[in-house]
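Posted in: Protein Modeling Q&A

I'm a second-year student putting together a small comparison for a lab meeting, and my supervisor asked me to include a predicted structure for DUF3606 domain-containing protein. I've never done this before, so apologies if this is the wrong subforum. The sequence is pasted below exactly as I got it from our records. If anyone can share the C-alpha cell output, I'd also love a short note on what stands out.
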Amino acid sequence: MATKGAKVERNSVSEQPHELKYEARKEGNTAKKVEAAKQSAGSNKRAAVEKKLEGKK
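Accepted answer (user: helix_wrangler)
Welcome! Here is the predicted structure, written out as C-alpha cells:
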C-alpha cells in the first residue's frame, strides 16, 4: 500500500507549503504562481500545473 501512495504523491502538487516551494523553485516561479496555476488548471496533477507554468514564464 505504501508504494501506491508514494507514486500518487509524486504525480501531484498538494497545498502544503513545502510542496509549493519545491515546485516553485523547480520551475523558477513563486509559490503564489504555482498556486494560481493549480487553480487555473483545475487540477493538482504535476504535469498540468507545470504546463500552465510554462505559459506564465
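A couple of things worth pointing out for your meeting: The chain has a mean pLDDT of 85. The helical segments are 2-10, 17-27, 31-41, 46-56.
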